[in-house]
Amino acid sequence: MSQPQHPQAHEPGTASAGLVCRSRHDDQVIPGLRLPSPVVELEAFRAAGVRLWVKRDDLMHPEVPGNKWRKLKYNLAAAREQGVKQLLTFGGAYSNHLRAVAAAGHLCGFETIGVVRGDEHLPLNDSLAFAVERGMRLTYLDRTTYRRKTGLRPGQQAVGFSALKGGSFLAEDVARLQRATGEPTGNWRIETEFHFGGFAKRIAAPWTSVGYALP
Predict the structure, then answer these.
(1) pTM for this one?
(2) What are the angstrom distances between the C-alpha of 89 and each of 82, 94, 139, 146, 193?
(3) Is 163 within a domain?
């Protein structure tokens, strides 16, 4: 009887140290970027007869790891294509997003500005200190003003995708939050039919149909 095939752990080499920012459809290369991210077996489970493999996106880059790189790469590519020299973004005082944007800007040659929710507090915490070390200029907005900046312009929509199976109750949650800060509008919504079975579930057919793949 043949044995089932298991994925092999791999340690891909470090990407070229040269900076390459290509089209938004390619993975941009920054110094130290590891693609694909390593797949590692957790040895502690083998004694119980279980082989468990983890895709370590946290090891993709020491300063722009995992989901941060996967989100930012499209914005960075678009900025490069449009000749933009400066990036501005928003986040909380302990925001990993601000850290990642500061690091990516430093590595890709962009000036960066971080708009921080709340008042300035000195000395800076580790997250904001790191952002400043990577060249980010910080500015601050009080929480009331910060909430107002999240409004949509005419013609824009905010669409979220729920990972919960049976998440139809979220529509009322969206309306309730809108009522608490203003008037409910029709341009904010949660799509609830793309949960693929719920948290930690996977159905083969939908993945095939959307052509989803991670590097």
Answers:
(1) 0.65
(2) 17, 14, 10, 12, 30
(3) yes
